[in-house]
Amino acid sequence: MSLYGLPFDGIKGIRAEKTRLEGEEAKLDTDVASLKRAFVEVFGFSLPLNLVRVRNNAYSPVMWRDLSKGRKARVLMKGGMSGEVWQGVLSSLPEDKRRVLLEIEFKRIHLSHALGLLQYEITRLKRLAGEFDTWRQLMRDVNQH
């Protein structure tokens, strides 16, 4: 351990940690792709929702897209399972399919949280690397004078 219990103390360690976390993110992205395939295998494109991987700064990267207003709709369902579309879908499904959908939702919640944490930490490490580079340059300037 290093200063303040961080797993690194210099730029090499920061970059290594960022690379390690990006590898974990890639592994979780394959889990998202598997979850999306599982959803399509069971439900096809018959439901007015679709599982999507979103790349934004909300740190909630695995969401449902509301397709109730058309297949090209770009509306993300932010209310989760409490929204009207979700309630309509759940009430229309037989019990066995409802159970499968809720299992997919359970995995989605956890995957989204895990990916959000990784995205946040990677963003912070990028910022830390930039700050550290600036500090190193200032130290060089000070040491040369």
Please provide a written account of the structure.
- A hairpin with an 8-residue loop joins strand 2 (62-66) and strand 3.
- A three-stranded antiparallel beta sheet has the order 1-2-3.
- The protein is mainly alpha-helical.
- It has one domain (8-134).
- Helix 1 runs antiparallel to helix 3 (95-144).
- It has helices spanning 11-43, 84-92, 95-144, and strands spanning 49-53, 62-66, 75-76.
- The two termini are 33 Å apart.
In short:
Helix content is 63%, strand content 8%. It is mostly helical.
CA radius of gyration: 21 Å
The largest sheet has its strands arranged as 1-2-3
Could you tell me the number of beta strands?
Answer: 3
Query: Rough shape?
Result: elongated
The number of helical segments is 3
> What's the structural domain tally?
1
Keywords:
145 residues; mainly alpha; 3-stranded antiparallel sheet; elongated
Write the layout of secondary structure elements.
Layout: H1 11-43, E1 49-53, E2 62-66, E3 75-76, H2 84-92, H3 95-144
Antiparallel strand pairs: 1-2, 2-3
Helix pairs in contact: 1-3
